[in-house]
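Write out this protein's structure.
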Amino acid sequence: MPAPLLLCDTPGLLYRGFFALPDSIKGADGRPVNALIGSVNMTLWCVEKYKPRAVVMCFGQESADYRVEAYPDYHAARPEMPDDLAWQWERAPDLYRALGWTVLGHESLEADDLMHSLCVAETEAGGRSYILTGDRDMFQCANDTVRVLMQRARQEGPDDMGPEEVLATYGVTPAQGASAFVNPLTALGMVETMKMEGHTALVHTAAASNLGQMLNKICLKDGIGLVNIVRSKEQAAILHKIGAKYVVDSTSDSFIDDLTNALVETGATLAFDAIGGGRLAGQILTCMETAANKTAKVYSRYGSSVHKQVYIYGGLDMRPTELIRSFGMAWGIGGWLLFPFLQKIGPADGARLRQRVVDELKTTFASHYTQVVSLQEALQLSNIAAYGKRATGEKYLINPNKGGWHKAQ
């Protein structure tokens, strides 16, 4: 078996060394070298223990371009780098090269992007990797050929963590961790938006999806009315099985009446639509208007005064959105995305939602997958055709390290 590759989160090592060691550790010129000493000592400890065939010190951009584009406030609250650390940072690459280590950086990616890419390449070549870091996000890389060396405060060396250790320590697998962001926070964001805008119940389309099932579990647990719109009897059965009360099938001849009755019972005036194209958004608004008028106390030629809102957050149907104006004047239609929502609610509320995901990751927010594929398999035409259908309830997990390379060693 070949010796492993050691991939180092250099920014994390430098920051940890700078703040963990006293600034009285100085070079001949009187400048602090605590960050340099700390990063080298920890790396040497790992070199001695794991005997890697090569050491790669990974640098990168402070905030990767693609992450800032997705979330403009990414790292916005991070303080400026201290001057003494910046001075050491500039000199670190030459020191590492003098020790015989490879220094790798990228102008638009972060160090963790590079480490993950390198461990994928190493696995594909039949090798093994260790990732030295203090960032728990890297646990998603842990598998049979990649182990994470997690730095801890006040201990000599890092914790050696594979999938089993991640599961034992945190109660979740790397695959579960990979599903702990977009769908759970989107479902929670829908409920938070409902509360913020003064609505009391929800409508959701493509409701049998993984996200839709999470939303049902949230609403059942929190006592919130939810009207689920599906596109087949099979999808309706999925939701009924998990306890959904209001499920209507858009392919049924009685769809409009069924939807209106469900809206009367729940009082839902806010919808999140993953379909996007066609008439569905307009039909929802029309049924909301009809439901509101069934309990109206006075007549108005302008329709109900109850505000009805549809947010489109997906595009399963790429046709134009078609509205037939039969829902009065108190209505709105717009777009909704997770990252702008997180910016709007701020860090404190965002942390509150993330904590709920952590607390309920194996219950409310459990995901299931149609298939786990490697990067190579994700590019196969048969798989592209399968997940390109945008079929409700079919979710693929890409495991870049899948492939059984460890079995061939």
